[in-house]
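Researcher: Re-running this chain for the archive, since the previous output was lost when a drive failed. Same request as before.
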Amino acid sequence: MKYITYISVILGTLGLAACADDGTNLPFGPDNKEIAIGADGGTRTVRIASDEAWIATTDAPWITVSPANGRGTTECQLIIDSALLENPRRGVIRFQNQQTRDNQEITVTQEGYAYAITLAEPEVSVENFALLDERYFDVKVKTNVDFNVAIPDTTGWLQYDSYKVEIDRGIRPREVTVRFKWNISSIPRTRNAEIAFIPKREVTLSQQDKLYVAQKAAAEIKKDTREGDSVALLGVSRSLNTWNETWDTSESMDNWSGVVLWEENMEGCTPEKIGRVRSASFLFFATKEGIPYEVQYLTAAESLTFFSNTNTHQKSLNTGDAITKLPQLKRLTISGYGLTELHPDFKNLKSLEYLDVSSNNIQKFPEVLTKENLPNLRALVMNANQRSLIYDLSNSVAANIGGLIDESEFPRHLLEWGLDTLRLSVNYLQGSLPSYGTADAPQDGWTEFYTEADIAASANDKGVDTLPRALIGTPKVMPRTKFFAINLNRLSGELPYWLLYHPALDWWLPDVLVFSQEGIDANGRTAGFDNEPVNMNYYYDFYTTKTRPSEETDED
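Model: Regenerated structure tokens:
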């Protein structure tokens, strides 16, 4: 029995020894000798078989092994960075058995990045209308090459903001945001644009997406109709973002505040005008753009008023061309809007008789405002164009302060226009008024002077005072002007003879609206006329048929 027990123990011992020999003889190394991965990189898992301690090393800095050492069989994570170049790359990972010094390798091959410009959303749809600050969309462009945005020349309603593609870490793709801005559509049909992204250098692209933008159709406005007028009024009000819009679309347009419709008994009314808009006022609004496009459909309007934009002093707006498509307009007011420019097509407003562009930011008298362009204009109101209130122009920067500051001298062509009303008060006009000389010694190319015929005509005209003979030879400047105001500018020098003895001077309230100047001009000269009269006695001594104010009596 003892012998049997000894044999059993010996056999068990030999069995354990056999098991130990099997573990020691496990083949050392990874379960995968080759790994291929794309340019984006990623993580791969490999199993290292070993009975001993081992260590992993690599000459590729873009490969990380975790863990990089161990004892016994272990799973390792191979973390592979994204590619940096266009061409493929190769790296080797070596696993060494620390007991036997046996080496096993894994070869990693990674594709390079192909050049590409791709879009997550290649199609965009926008509305036909939104407020200015809401008229944009952002596009995410994935790229590994710098590019230009190509919008077709025929697409004038799309623009893009500046953007930056930073290719500073190889050519791995990165996401770039490009912001596009769109304009309001007045077209009653969908309009489309195809936008390309063009590489700035010659490369071969594996993918090049385009952006397709569709803008929804605008509501159709029926031209030359009452219905079209109502839609146009609502459109203008919407685009201006008016504050006090109270028009109830369920009510007749006859009841809309600030809107006057043509009626049969009105002067100038024709059968096709009856019931259409004759005049309209848009008051108190917030816009950063010119006059809305819908205004062009008010083709029967004689008078339009746009008054009081928000933060006017901060704006530098152009009227746009929509308002210039109404050649029938006779009266136009665009006051407190933030204008610095009038559209060149203002010359199309041949019927215009009254123009008020006061309280804007105009620095240079608009070139389009001439007698030739607006032959029927009788009243021009352009006062209070000061963006900023500055007393001393010599100590200030002239840029962006408005007030006709860019006029080097008084715009004499306004005096020669023959207007009934000319109002230029509270601007920054500088220099002196033109003299025009006398008939014996004319200046500035002036050719019109009072004659014997003018004196005789005044004696026969019951509507005017008889002109004195002493006026003969005096420059005949603004003979029809009933209202003239140039006060609170920076004018200086001598008051010319034609102004001091103008037949209508007493009606112009000269002490208040003509002679009074203020501040210091850009040359450091104190504003004011050197020969400003103390009172009007000289004038009534000259015009003996006029009644002095002190001699007037009240009528019961």
